[in-house]
Amino acid sequence: MKMTKMLRGSAIGLAAGLLMSTAVQAQETIKVGILHSLSGTMAISETTLKDAMLMLIEQQNAKGGLLGKKLEAVVVDPASDWPLFAEKARELITGSKVAAVFGCWTSVSRKSVLPVFEELNSLLFYPVQYEGEESQRNVFYTGAAPNQQAIPAVDYLAETEGVERWVLAGTDYVYPRTTNKILETYLLDSGVAPEDIMINYTPFGHSDWQTIVAEIKAFGSAGKKTAVVSTINGDANVPFYKELANQGIKAEDIPVVAFSVGEEELAGIDTGPLVGHLAAWNYFMSAPTPENDEFIAAWHEFIGDTKRVTNDPMEAHYIGFNMWIKAVEKAGTTDADAVIDSIVGVSVPNLTGGYSAMMPNHHITKPVLIGEIQDDGQFETVFETPGLVVGDAWSDFLPDSKALISDWRKPMNCGNFNTATGKCGGKGS
Amino acid sequence: MARPLLLILQRIALVLVLATALIGGSAKAQSGPSVPDLVSRLAGADFNETERVVEALAASGDASVARLLEALGDGDLYYRRSDNAVFIATRGGEGYLLTDPLTGASAGEAGRREVAKVRVNNSLRRAVRAAIGTLTLRSPDPAIRIAAAQSVLKSGDPEAVEPLTEAIAAEQNDSVRAVMERARAAAILNSDASDAVKIDAVKTIAAKSSQDTRAILLAASNGASEALGSAISDAVRRVEGDLALWSAAQNVWYGLSLGSVLLLAAIGLAITFGVMGVINMAHGEMVMIGAYVTYVVQEIIRNHAPFLFDVSLLIALPLAFAIAGAVGMAIERGIIRFLYGRPLETLLATWGLSLILQQVVRSLFGPTNQEVGAPSWMSGAFELGGLTLTYGRVWIIVFALVVFAVLVLVLRHTSFGLQMRAVTQNRRMASSMGIRTNWTDALTFGLGSGIAGVAGVALSQIDNVSPNLGQSYIIDSFLVVVFGGVGNLWGTLVGALSLGVLNKFLEPYAGAVLGKILVLVFIILFIQKRPRGLFALKGRAVES
């Protein structure tokens, strides 16, 4: 009896001790900022990323947190309003004192927060594919640069499909315009005649695609194999694909390769008529690896809905978050300068069966996957680059940025070093 | 009767071959690899290997492989990991239901991880389609024969000349024969036939002016001799002339179809803004509610009564009208009636309301797009001369006009319409005549909102069903109503259709972005000239 009483007493004592220690820990958390729109037009894409980050933080805490402390997510809603992004970023850094921020989707929101991160010297992990032409000391670009998505996709079409005529269709804003400029130069350099390239821009949320699809059809009837390279922004894609299907343009005739269409966008369409159209990403939900199976299972459990899909920007956050954890552990502190120094060279597993490493230009290495849409709304990988591709901050196919390189290690410590003049500070300085 | 019998015999023979192959190891029925041998090579093959197998299967001339090729093209062909046996697999139960690819006999079940897909890509799908085309040219079903001829027409495979010539000789059906002759001509152009034969083929192909014709001819002009080249360029010029004419007609059609979408979006606003004078910024959200009602109806039908799917939109229509109308009336009773005569406050309040409604829908249904399927009678397209008309658009135009007609009838010929017009024209007089103006206001606003909800059902077919759906239409709706003339339904009709056509004629020349800007500039100038729009209301109502 006494024995059990004693045991019980010590058990209570132990429990109390544990409680005390968690209470102490709760006071000393490491805060992680999440800066994704939860309302407004971009909520459609960004809400998922907020949830993915919450899941990653929860998983890390279950593993024991970071540096012996628990992580605490601080979620703010910049409401798809670009200036509000800057305000909310400031609030996260100075008000909540977060150690790092994961967020932004559109390039304009990233541009709006750049000065804030520079001024307050904090860290931003940006998870979306973008137009490149930027490298900032406080920002880590975990999405694809154009050379990790657009160029391999065009190569694939030219080689395996024998495409000779190109339609570059995009929404009218900075990402499609820059990507198309890079692609146009690349195609002209590789011997495509100027009359075999058609460039077309549409406004945001364009919903009446009849004329443009008819134009594409006419452009494709010149006796040469034609393909569409689409940088059409998320929301306008559903009516675009619906119109393609309605006018009977099949992937076998004129394939469309998209850079902004992932599993999430396809969730709103009946993909039966779209089988065979392509997308280029660095991750597909269908990737057959144990890491991916685990990630999907965890996601379904976290969100409580087995129908929800995973997509490329989620993987980018997965990679970025793990890189940050590893860099903080390596530096032994969450101090921004120390992490910026320690994160270069950090390598973590990605979800497609390899490792991604942070490069000195703050971009990461990734495999490039080309997938064909299947009738269940998933992609099937039909091509994968043999090795990893290093993200290139400054495109080799734009005259202004050809000579620029970026290296944030000492002694160069420069995001736009001009190799022609030998000076730091070129375009974008 | 002889052919099906022959097919059955062939199948039996194949089963026998398969059986002997399984028992005796490598029994070869003929020279070269047998069909089952070829099929077994598909297990785990890469794209190049699969393509070689498809070519060999097509060359075997055995019509029974059509089913297998069909399944391969559709991505339904799988192989069992344990023994590399190839099956057609369909989703069923926990995993897949397997059938034998050659005989069609059931072959049991397999778990999801036990089988792997024979992977296909676009170029394989093309090869498969061409192979099926050549194999099914002699099918007893004329529809299959036409499809077969059309896929050969697309591929232009020179190997198909022989089978096509035979098929044409045996063909009884005129329309099938016409397609086959075009297909044969396309195949001849890719073969090494003499110029005279090829020039004949050019004539056969150019008899029908279409973009496909142009594509085939232009592809054949590469490396053609002078005589053939000039024949081709003559033909192409004629075809392009025809196409240019049709493209003008096509633009009018596109314009009408865009106009009908604008009309649908704006017609509810023509009542709330046009007749009542309420600047309702939440109008777009009524459209969105209608689209979400369609989504919910379809979800329920998918889960509980899939056979009703084709009428899902018809079921959604009255529900969307009722729900959006009820929300509209609640808005009128709850907010707008306190703000009559204060347009700026109304504008701000309804704008705030639109944000609230969006966020409510976002919280209820999630921020992502919802899938609203098209019933079979609304998908696909048909050709009318050189025009390609999609069924979805045709129905939307018809629907927009029906909604418009019903609304005009309600306003002109019902007592509710009469009261509504009386209240808008002279509220105090109407009130002293015994009309309950409060209720008329609420019902009118409900009617406008309900019509917006009905528009949402139609728009769910062509646009994203997301919380942002309404936002993209609100500006256009106001433009149409202001341009057409506030307070006049006919103005809205003419305004919507003419803006649609104008937009579509500008788009090919100016591009979609500049086209839209030009339309806006045009409207600004027009409003300067005629501030009351196309069809201005006259009389005392205007002065107040």
From TrEMBL, chain A:
Gene3D superfamilies xrefs: 3.40.50.2300
InterPro entries in the record: ABC_urea-bd_UrtA, Peripla_BP_I
Keywords of this entry: Signal
Protein name, per record: Urea transport system substrate-binding protein
One Pfam family cited in the UniProt record for this chain: Peripla_BP_5
UniProt key word Signal: yes
UniProt-listed PANTHER family: ALIPHATIC AMIDASE EXPRESSION-REGULATING PROTEIN, PTHR47628
Recorded coiled-coil stretches: none
From TrEMBL, chain B:
InterPro entries reported for this sequence: ABC_transp_permease (IPR001851), ABC_UrtB_bac (IPR017779), ARM-like (IPR011989), ARM-type_fold (IPR016024), BCAA_transport_permease (IPR052157)
Entry-linked SUPFAM superfamilies: ARM repeat
Main location: membrane
GO BP terms in the entry: amino acid transport
TM regions (residue ranges): 252-279, 286-305, 311-331, 343-361, 394-411, 478-502, 508-527
Topology in the lipid bilayer: Multi-pass membrane protein
Keywords: Amino-acid transport, Cell membrane, Membrane, Transmembrane, Transmembrane helix, Transport
Any one of the GO CC terms: plasma membrane
Taxonomy, superkingdom: Bacteria
Family to which the UniProt record says this protein belongs: Belongs to the binding-protein-dependent transport system permease family. LivHM subfamily.
Protein name, UniProt field: Amino acid/amide ABC transporter membrane protein 1, HAAT family
Organism in which the protein naturally occurs: Thalassobaculum litoreum DSM 18839
